[in-house]
Amino acid sequence: MPELIVDKSKCLKNIERMVKKARVNGLSFRPHCKTHQSAEIASWFREFNVTKITVSSFSMASYFAAAGWSDILVAFPFDPGQLTTLKKLSEKTEVSVLIDNLEVLSHLKKVSRNVKFYIDIDTGYGRTGIPAANLEQITRIIQESTANRHLTFSGFYCHAGHSYKTAVPAERTAIHQRAIADLTALKNEFSRFNPRVLYGDTPNCSTQSDFNGIDEITPGNFVFYDLIQHHLGSCNLEDIAVAVACPVVGKYPDHRRVVIHGGGVHFSKEQMVINNSLVFGQLLNPASSQWMGIQPEQYITSLSQEHGILEHCGEWMEKVSIGQILKFLPVHSCMTANLLRNYKTTDGRLITTNGT
Amino acid sequence: MPELIVDKSKCLKNIERMVKKARVNGLSFRPHCKTHQSAEIASWFREFNVTKITVSSFSMASYFAAAGWSDILVAFPFDPGQLTTLKKLSEKTEVSVLIDNLEVLSHLKKVSRNVKFYIDIDTGYGRTGIPAANLEQITRIIQESTANRHLTFSGFYCHAGHSYKTAVPAERTAIHQRAIADLTALKNEFSRFNPRVLYGDTPNCSTQSDFNGIDEITPGNFVFYDLIQHHLGSCNLEDIAVAVACPVVGKYPDHRRVVIHGGGVHFSKEQMVINNSLVFGQLLNPASSQWMGIQPEQYITSLSQEHGILEHCGEWMEKVSIGQILKFLPVHSCMTANLLRNYKTTDGRLITTNGT
Asked: Could you give the ipTM of this predicted complex?
């Protein structure tokens, strides 16, 4: 069965690098835990004095609260269906939520314990959030929230996810500069509320160096990285800290094809294009006992539910046997980790998750 | 939280239609359970006197054996790493496996209980299997398997998965006709072993009418169907028996955009192109209390981990409130069901799965 292998030493290096980035720039650090969804992996951040986290669902918030995290931001537009869960969680945990409209505020006004909220700001991504220029709507939300003394406006949150749409450094920098300009303007405009500014996706936090006006960063993927992040220039291939271990189940030398047990229910169907071909994972050197010997240019090029297919296989395939375990870097580690639900450390120990 | 709703009455109709198709064509019926992965849903097939099933992993085989199924085909190239599980399972259950090479036979020869095997035949799909014309390799596998009296050659298996690659009826029929011609030739060539021929993906089993030479069909997806199957002409939209229920979490009337809680970890990232746009799900009529009123032309056009985005939204969005539950037909029901792990029936009862 396919397994997700995690290299803790690589994770610790990735965490340390981001911790330093935050420290150098005078930023508070609230890592996103949706990538790993694991209490044990979250605990690795404590070694770096991280005390607060970001998650993307109330299911994750409840899981990490039970694991002892006392300051949790649910960085997802608040769903009124989660009001009961929010009330329960906020009895013992400092829970922050995101808002970008007045309608949801009418539900949130029912909280009876202290709940902080951040206003979700759109600086050009176009997914959720209030456009930074819409001061009127922001003002109304802040004003109306005062009807409940338990509800506290704490600042602005921005996920500049369009950073994922370009691998060109100058374009990324332009996206980032616009975001921090927009957020700084809001911070000044609403300075009487002393708002905090929360920001940060993995590509920007990994590649940018100007965080003027930002108070806190919330990247998540960087703990593992993956092929998409490598393509975006966020990391080196050697920084990728997870790999999927899959048994070989078919060899077709006449067609230079190898088939593995490792499909869409393991890798996810997240895809990217490399060398004009769809790619779902990259083979690590099967001849190396090293974790991270990169086998040049050998990719999973199609996936069905349980099958992964490697085409145009090089000479390495002559030495591979049926049942042999091959390891692959995932295209998108968050999606892969969510599917595989558990990790094995490089020394074979099980690490569980919210999905275990 | 997103939930997967299943309409049992639609499933029963889908099952009944396929049962009749099998009966009319004199075929035995061994439905694939990888689509639903649920003992309860598998039990619905018993009402139609189905007594044997297909699965795609030993994890599923163990789960369904525990649920009382006594004749299970693991329709996936045998992985030597599963030998211990196979030995244990075959103590109490009739387990059949797939083979397409001699190397794996050396592992399978170690079984000490009766295990049937089918030879996986490639009739043009190009994923796994021995090309139908390679009589030499087929002969060698059959001969060498006789070294262990517990190992019984039972016939040929073919998944003509290239049926998914065309929505043109004549092209589909050509794929199907070549497959049944190839399989019939093998059946005649190896008639001294009295081989059974197992065949069938959902597109071919739903749309073809000539099954000459086939003994048993093994489709799976048809129990639910989905948008891909509808696109392929396998079903009507009204036949699709699962929908994902997702709360609205964002409304952006200026941009005609609605955002739901329902992302890649719920729908999967399986995508298709409709009207030149990537699609990840189709909205059902939000104004209808009916399960299956189709809202014309409103699709999920992008997904991140937890967010689903609907763009170019019609007038319906004016009437939608934050927190309201919308329902969506999935692109690929097998992947969606695998992610959501549980079902709710239309009357709100929970149905569990192998992944619960």
From this structure: 0.96
